Amino acid sequence: MRVTQIGHSTVLVEAAGLRLILDPYFGRRGNPAYRRRSPPARSREACLDVDAVLISHAHFDHIDRRYLRAISSDIPVFAPQRVAWWISLICGREIHAVKPWRQFMIGTAYVVPVTARHTAPGVGYVISAEGKILYFAGDTFAGRFMKEIGDRFRPDVCLMPVARHRIPTTMGNAGAVEAARLLRPRTIIPIHLGLEPRFSALRRAETVESFRTLARGERLDANIVSLEPGESYCW
User: DSSP secondary-structure letter at 30?
Assistant: First the structure.
């Protein structure tokens, strides 16, 4: 299994001959409240050749309307049931609605949407292929539901947000350590690091390095892998 960081929370997962893109967002500037820290490693056009798209929730930095309109109508797009109708409306294409714990298949890969606790309706995804298991948290705070994810799936790799802003929309460093204790992954890849508030007073100095330092101090038994846009991790 191979994970490539495109930027922010957008990742490309390759396994069992499949290419899955998660939370596609290729905007280069952000919006009036948040700016993009660095551009995505690949363009929309370079990511059209995928087998499926998985969306965790409908915040602007996790869905890319232009991309979803550009990919072939034969490529399935999955999103949480409560927002699938809205994404379908704004993108003018079919969206497959998913519910937590309702498994489905893409090719030979098993995909299980799982609970997420966020400021908007959302899910995470557990992807199983080639005997390997990946958990993509999307945007979520830590919660006891993660123990069930850890117990049921025993993920090899977790893609988790580890940085937040002063108005928290997802877990910060301490929350990510708590989540890791519940999930017990072998490897953690931090995501959700590509945007920051335009107003400096709303920024927090939480980074991959500060997370790694905290995790080490808490004796967290997990390998922490930092991926810059364009870099990949294979296992």
Answer: B
- DSSP assignment letter at 223: E
In this structure, the number of other CB atoms found within 10 A of the CB of residue 231 comes to 13
pLDDT tens digit string along 75-113?
A: 999 999 999 999 999 999 999 999 999 999 999 999 999
Per-residue pLDDT tens over the stretch 62-73: 999 999 999 999
d(CA 124, CA 106): 16
pTM of the model as a whole: 0.94
Show the DSSP H helices in 79-140 as ranges: 81-91
- Structure token pair of residue 235: 């296992």
Amino acid code (one letter) for 67:
Y
pLDDT at residue 144 tops 80? yes
Residue 233, CB-side half-sphere exposure with 13 Å CA sphere: 20
Q: In the chain, which residue ranges form alpha helices assigned H by DSSP?
A: 65-70, 81-91, 145-153, 173-183, 208-217
Contact residues for 34 (Cβ-Cβ < 8 A; gap 6+): 61, 195, 196, 197, 198
First to last CA, the chain: 6
Give the domains, in start order, of the chain with CATH numbers.
2-227 (3.60.15.10)
Distance CA 220, CA 208 (A): 14
CB 141 within 8 A of CB 118: yes
Q: Which residue has the higher pLDDT, 209 or 181?
A: 181
